Amino acid sequence: MIKYRPEIDGLRAVAVISVIFFHAGFTFFEGGFIGVDVFFVISGFLVTSTILTELEKDQFSIINFYERRARRILPALFFLLAISFPIAWIVFLPKDLESYLKSLSAIPIFSANVFFLKDVEYFSTASELKPLLHTWSLAVEEQYYIFFPLLILFTRTRNKKSKRQILFVILLFLASVSLIYSQNLSSSKVSTNFYLLPSRFWEIAIGSILAFIPTSVYMISTSKKQLLSFVGISLILLSVVMFRRDTPWPSFYTLIPTIGTVFIIMFANTSDTFVGSLLSNKFFVQIGLISYSAYLWHQPIFAFSRYTFSSNYLNTYTMFILSFLSMFLAYSSWKYFELPFRDKIRFPRVLLFRLSLILSLFFIVFGYSLSRVFRYFQGESIVAKQLLSKGFAYAKLISDERIFVRERIHLQDKSPDILIIGSSRIMSIDGILGKESLGLGVSGASIEDDIAIVYMSTRKLNPSKILIGADPWLFNLNCGHERWKSLASEYYEALGEKTQNKNSPKEINSLGYSIINLYETLNFSLKNSPIDDATEFHAKIRRDGYHIYDLIYSSKSQKEIESEFNAQINYGMDQYVFSPKAKMEFIDMLREQSQKREVALILTPYHPQLYEKMKKEKPIFLIIEKEFRDLARENNILIIGSYDPDKVGCAADEFYDGMHPRAQCMKKVMSQTSFSHKK
């Protein structure tokens, strides 16, 4: 074993405090995520130093190595998973519980980084609601430590010195490749670069490489140690306050905190330097000792709190209290789980491995099986029922918007004067038409959706007016929108055809129903409903169908909005092939409805910059708008708005993104009509 160095535990304290305060949202810790990079270097150094010491004594063993890793990592981790599950069960809405359960099954096989790569972008607001997000870094470490011992075993040479030299060269080469790879990926595939081992390898490898360097190499004068150790801690602290969420990471920038860590390990000798003495202080050392548990506990505490309470309650003072709570739970976890399992007499190897295997299999099977049950959870009727008696409901329960609209129509006990039908582009018509309106929009509404929803709603309800969104993809044979098939029966019935809906929800067995019933009984979020239209972490639906988007979506910067233009200009319009059949079906619907009530088409504006891009790159949008106007005139149908925001008077800051206007913009669109005349 290598000699204990208290200043390294002190450095762990700096790292974990930085990470915790970053996730708490404290202003001066915006770069606190670099604490993970500090951990990577420390881990590589300590683990590799131990391995090299054992190699020198011919004592290295793969089984011993993994036993140490299991004693270090698994007890506190399994304790956290066991405690977090019941909290998630009573707090999370179905979609989020399903995601949590999937992550639960990924963690024991150390693939959490792969799961979260597909699930959420690390620096997004959505990541703040993921209680197990931070386990991505454990997965990266353990993937490294699957590779590294095997590299040692396959490096065959009788000469110990030659073996060290070969390993050193291989690590140096792989680390260099990994660093260059991460830099190249940092601006193109941000999440892949952040989460996966190939672009993180070099950070742990830096610590490993440092372990190969004889201590005699950095035996320099005390004054130089003072200077270099001060430079080291300065590089780390500067990184904490200097870097931001939008800093490419990992990249060449990451060399700053990692080199700082190397300098401290090399030169911050406890007795010789001020930095070493400071980090060896009992306060820092104690936090360093519980740093692993502190890292484990802080994210679930923050995530569950943010999920449960309004952002109004989670101010700086509250987040500091939650940070302190993380430390308290960390100390308990360290004392009662980490330390006892390091006792080889109380927990011999065989018992440790058996427990690890049993618990790993339990969480894998348990998480995977339950996630499949919640995949088919039908929350649409719950939301529809809530909106009968309450002003608002959370949208997170809705898995299929079409089924939700069907449920709303089925349960609606009062006929509104105005129906609003179309895609998500008309969901921001905010009280413009009064309390008598009902929005039945669905994301990416196709011609089939419009026909099915008009058919369902006008059979049950008797509105005097209908507004229908005239989206450019409605007559596109290649729009690629398939979600309408949830309403296939209604669509074909509206056309006078009979068909069997093959897209009805899959049935779950009796055990699945029992699990769902237990969940509905214990979960308080299902019973909780919003009281106003304030923007929160969760999207809401108002009784009249108006959508209040979540904090993530509604707070996009103009830069973020512009980054999506290429995708949005092609949404449903990548390859345009006109469908005469779709147009005829649409006209037939309009004619039928206009004989019974007033009908209007809405041309919803696009973002000013996206519209300019359309004029240059896809003038088909302009042609389609003219065709809609001709169609309306020929059929004596009112048409309002325009894809051109200038014609309506909508500014860039009146859009959520390139294709979804805010209520301010839609008010300008709706001001063009009182349903008293036709154009």
Mean pLDDT level: 90
Task: Give the overall silhouette.
Answer: elongated
Low-confidence stretches: none
SSE-based structural type: mainly alpha
Tell me the total number of β-strands: 8
DSSP strand content: under 5%
Distance between the termini: 86 Å
Helix segment count?
29
What is the topology, as strand order, of the major beta sheet? Answer: 3-2-4-7-8
Oligomer: single chain
Query: Major beta sheet, specifics?
Result: 5 strands, parallel
The value of Rg in angstroms is 30 Å
Helix content percent band: 55-70%
Provide a descriptive summary of the structure in words:
This protein has 679 residues and is mainly α. 59% of the residues lie in helices and 4% in strands.
Explain the layout of strands and helices.
Layout: H1 6-24, H2 34-56, H3 62-91, H4 94-106, H5 112-119, H6 136-154, H7 160-185, H8 190-195, H9 197-212, H10 222-242, H11 255-267, H12 274-279, H13 282-289, H14 291-308, H15 316-341, H16 349-375, H17 380-389, E1 392-394, H18 401-411, E2 418-421, E3 437-439, H19 447-460, E4 465-469, H20 488-494, H21 510-522, E5 540-542, E6 547-548, H22 551-554, H23 558-563, H24 565-569, H25 580-594, E7 598-603, H26 608-617, H27 620-634, E8 638-641, H28 645-648, H29 663-670
